[in-house]
Design brief:
The chain is an alpha+beta fold and about 475 residues long. The protein folds into 3 domains: about 5-15 and about 100-155 and about 240-470, Glycosyl hydrolase domain, family 43 (Tachylectin-2, Chain A); about 20-100, no CATH class; about 170-235. It has helices at about 30-40, 45-55, 65-75, 85-95, 175-185, 190-195, 205-220, 225-235, 465-470, and strands at about 5, 10, 20, 95-100, 105-115, 125-135, 140-150, 155, 165, 170, 175, 200, 235-240, 250, 260-275, 275-285, 290-300, 305-310, 320, 330-335, 340-345, 355-360, 370, 375-380, 380-390, 395-405, 410-415, 435, 440-445, 445-455, 455-465. A hairpin with a 2-residue loop joins strand 24 and strand 25. It is globular and about 80 Å long.
């Protein structure tokens, strides 16, 4: 057996962590009576009621007033006459609610080096931990924590933040004509004219305006093109957080229809290429009916570029990028078909057509299915790939495989026994008998592995890299 050290550190869901959402009844009949009620209030009474709301909720959020105004703007079409700012804010407050992002579960962590490694003592490494937070309606979002792995490999988490903030979608985001043209599935005269008229850079509003002009000027039916563009602009978005907000406060909450029911199981990796070092994270977008793999790109965890992945290989869940290109191409571990591991290659980071079988279940404890648990770690003897495996009674365990450095579709070896199996404590929870993670980090000759315990808590383990390699290559 490989010696694995489990720490006593535990992270558990905290229902007090709430963010603000628009209370959308989707029916004007529910908006109008409340708006009419506010309009009929005396100004002094409206101010008293608004100040009471502020006293009750202001200490729980960064900028309550701006959120109320944002929500009022969504309803302004139902307001028949100009009103005071106080009444605007009060209307916004009526259609705002708190959402507890962790009320159901906190699980499936990923871990990467922090972009800021200043101010540390010798041998320390600062990290960012991403977490899958699940709340009411089983909607999943992506939360963050920071901490330090010490020179002696102790793990210290920084103080958590109770106030949360959602990133704002860029209102003036520019899109590239070439990127849209490569993906556009709509053919015909109308689509060709549209691309011909489109400038090299454009906003979503400019593109839709161009479609409307073509429809009215040429008598074309471009409804299919319009529908595609609306979906395209909905899923290709940028998010920005306030610079003065701590990383621990920032929440990637579903911001498109494709992920309306969750952003699941983010797998972040620090990626290095000719542009330098930056961070990429794959996740599963879920709309309540279908899933789609998406990709997050960031340099600083303040500004995020979020896009769907396309191509015939971009299917199923649980994709994890290699931290560098292999033989000049992007490489990723996937799982087409849901049971076995595959390896994927691409020249375009956002389009994946090529894949090949990598590893399939062979042992009794992995017979139901296998999947990756985050991006591989590079060692002189090969790529170490942390995997999960499912056996009888849907028991999830963690294992390791070793892939060839230059030809990673060749599996050199895999463990004959699990690296980690649920202990008695770890097997009890929201989803029993499950150990799962979305990434590991190497530091000072050890692999640091944060992992979820039955979707109810997060623990940490570490194991010597050499011990794993020796077990794989005795």
């Amino acid at each position: 057996m490989i010696p694995v050290h489990r720490t006593d550190l535990r992270l558990k869901a905290d229902a007090r962590k709430v963010l603000l959402r628009f209370l959308d009844f989707g029916n004007p009949a529910r908006f109008e009576p409340v708006i009419r009620y506010v309009l009929e209030l005396e100004e002094g009474e409206a101010d008293v009621r608004y100040q009471a709301i502020c006293r009750d909720f202001e200490h729980r959020h960064f900028d309550l007033e701006s959120v109320f105004m944002e929500h009022f703007e969504r309803l302004s079409g139902y307001v028949p006459l100009p009103v005071s700012r106080t009444k605007e804010l009060l209307i916004g407050a009526y259609f705002t609610h708190e959402y507890s992002i962790q009320s159901a579960a906190l699980f499936n962590p990923s871990i990467v080096p922090h972009p800021d490694q200043t101010g540390l003592r010798p041998g320390e490494l600062r990290f960012i931990l991403s977490l899958r937070a699940t709340g009411e309606g089983h909607i999943s979002s992506i939360a963050f924590l920071t901490g330090i792995v010490g020179a002696n490999l102790d793990i210290h988490l920084d103080a958590d933040a109770m106030k949360l903030v959602r990133g704002k979608r860029s209102a003036h985001q520019l899109f590239q004509k070439g990127g849209l043209a490569r993906k556009l599935p709509v053919q015909g005269e109308g689509a060709a004219l549209f691309l011909q008229q489109l400038p090299e850079e454009f906003t979503a509003g400019e593109a839709l305006k161009e479609v409307n002009a073509l429809e009215s000027g040429h008598g074309l039916d471009l409804s299919a093109l319009t529908d595609y563009l609306r979906d395209y602009f909905d899923t290709h978005y940028d998010l920005e957080f306030p610079k003065d907000s701590p990383i621990e406060s920032r929440i990637l909450f579903p911001a498109s229809r494709a992920e309306s029911n969750g952003m699941e199981d983010a797998r972040f990796v620090q990626f290095a290429d000719e542009k330098g070092k930056y961070f990429l994270g794959t996740y599963t977008a879920y709309n309540g009916r279908a899933i789609c793999p998406h990709l997050i790109e960031t340099n600083d965890f303040q500004y995020f570029k979020i896009r769907p992945l396309g191509g015939k290989a971009a299917s199923d869940k649980g994709m994890a990028l290699f931290p560098e290109k292999i033989n000049g191409r992007y490489a990723m571990v996937g799982r087409q078909g849901g049971r076995s591991l595959s390896i994927m290659y691409a020249d375009d980071l956002y389009h994946w057509d090529t894949y090949a079988p990598l590893q399939h279940p062979q042992r009794h404890w992995e017979m139901l299915q296998m999947g990756n648990c985050g991006s591989p770690v590079k060692t002189p003897r090969g790529w170490l790939l942390l995997t999960h495996a499912v056996g009888p009674m849907r028991k999830y365990v963690l294992s390791m495989s070793l892939l060839d450095l230059h030809n990673p579709e060749r599996v050199i070896a895999s463990l004959e026994q699990p690296l980690l199996s649920p202990s008695e404590e770890e097997r009890e929870g929201y989803v029993p008998n499950v150990l799962y993670t979305c990434g590991m980090l190497e530091h000072r000759g050890n692999l640091v592995i944060p992992y979820a315990m039955s979707d109810s808590a997060i623990g940490f383990a570490r194991v010597e890299t050499a011990a794993v390699l020796d077990a794989l290559l005795p």
